[in-house]
């Protein structure tokens, strides 16, 4: 199942807090991408991460992002949204 994970920045964290962990973050994101768990990675205009995950459920999605160093260091967290297929096209093919 596809799950959208949207980063939420945590209070009290400054840009300098991230810097020591950014290379490890990129490495782990690459590993998870290669495993097919992170399918797509984006940033919003205000530099919040948006991930499309391939996960069994929200619990599995949480497990995936908890492997990221910035999450482990409690510098960021994510909100999760299950992506369901759009059912509207079936209206075009009424039987």
Jot down its keywords.
alpha+beta; 95 residues; Alpha-Beta Plaits; 4 strands; 28% strand; 4-stranded antiparallel beta sheet; 31% helix
Question: Would you mind describing this structure in some detail?
Answer:
The chain has 95 residues and is α+β, with helices and mostly antiparallel strands. It has a single domain, classed as Alpha-Beta Plaits (2-Layer Sandwich), CATH 3.30.70.1060. Helices cover 31% and strands 28% of the residues. The protein has four helices and four strands, in the order E-H-H-E-E-H-H-E. The chain has a four-stranded antiparallel β-sheet with strand order 2-3-1-4. The model has no long low-confidence stretch (mean pLDDT 96).
| Biggest sheet, spatial arrangement of strands | 2-3-1-4
Report the CATH architecture: 2-Layer Sandwich
Largest β-sheet summary:
4 strands, antiparallel
Q: Spans with pLDDT under 50 lasting ≥5 residues?
A: none
Cα radius of gyration in angstroms: 16 Å
Question: Whole-number average pLDDT?
Answer: 96
Per-chain topology:
Elements: E1 2-9, H1 15-18, H2 22-34, E2 38-43, E3 49-54, H3 58-65, H4 69-72, E4 76-82
Antiparallel strand pairs: 1-3, 1-4, 2-3
In a nutshell, what does this entry contain?
By secondary structure, the protein is α+β, with helices and mostly antiparallel strands. It is built from four helices and four strands, in the order E-H-H-E-E-H-H-E.
